[in-house]
């Protein structure tokens, strides 16, 4: 598997700039789970997260076709920035809040023998999501980017349009706030 930021990924991005559909498919495979997780922690609905994740990758492909991807920015930072902005747009245009995942949705994404395991994972994700919702949105976003999506301080700074030092302080405060909530 190709890792984000690796030399192989840079080659894929070069192919992507030449509108290579196979390269897009490979980058999609690398990032789909990470972007879905990022979006899911923001919307707390698997159906909405799937829809938004699809929209994000459609936007990426359209931006590629229109030659609007910057060459200096890391692809991962670009993708997370696009995901973040898509979620913001979703909340701007959405008046209603959607709640918890239904058992039908959990069963749809589970194999027959793994339903219980998937439900347990969903319950834990919901619990974590509820705890994270008690944090300020900027704290929650920083924690999800760093600890769940495993982005570096530099990448988070690029996504949030902040200095690295400010991101370190933000993460420190977010961790302390989460510790207080978990007590």
Automatic annotation (TrEMBL):
Domain RNA polymerase sigma factor 70 region 4 type, first and last residues per copy: 127-176
This protein's record includes keyword Cell membrane: no
Source taxon at top rank: Bacteria
Coiled coil ranges: 118-145
GO MF annotation: an example: sigma factor activity
Family (UniProt): Belongs to the sigma-70 factor family. ECF subfamily.
GO BP terms: DNA-templated transcription initiation
Domain RNA polymerase sigma-70 region: 27-96
Keywords: Coiled coil, DNA-binding, Sigma factor, Transcription, Transcription regulation
Database matches in InterPro entries: RNA_pol_sigma-70-like, RNA_pol_sigma-70_dom, RNA_pol_sigma70_r2, RNA_pol_sigma70_r4_t2, RNA_pol_sigma_r2, RNA_pol_sigma_r3/r4-like, WH-like_DNA-bd_sf
UniProt keyword annotation of DNA repair present: no
This protein's name: RNA polymerase subunit sigma-24
């Amino acid at each position: 598997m190709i890792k984000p930021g690796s030399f192989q990924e840079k080659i894929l991005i070069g192919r992507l700039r030449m509108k290579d559909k196979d390269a897009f498919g490979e980058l999609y495979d690398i990032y789909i789970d990470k972007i879905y997780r990022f979006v899911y922690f923001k919307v707390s609905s698997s159906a909405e997260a799937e829809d938004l994740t699809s929209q994000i990758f459609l936007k990426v492909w359209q931006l590629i076709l229109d030659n609007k991807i910057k060459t200096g920015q890391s692809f991962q930072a670009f993708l997370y920035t696009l995901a973040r902005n898509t979620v913001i747009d979703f909340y701007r245009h959405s008046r209603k809040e959607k709640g918890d995942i239904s058992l039908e949705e959990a069963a749809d994404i589970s194999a027959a023998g793994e339903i219980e395991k998937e439900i347990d994972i969903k319950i834990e994700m919901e619990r974590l999501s509820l705890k994270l919702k008690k944090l300020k949105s900027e704290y929650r976003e920083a924690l999800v980017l760093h600890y769940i999506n495993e982005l570096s301080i530099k990448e988070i700074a690029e996504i949030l349009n902040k200095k690295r030092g400010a991101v370190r302080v933000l993460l420190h405060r977010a961790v302390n706030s989460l510790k207080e909530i978990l007590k």
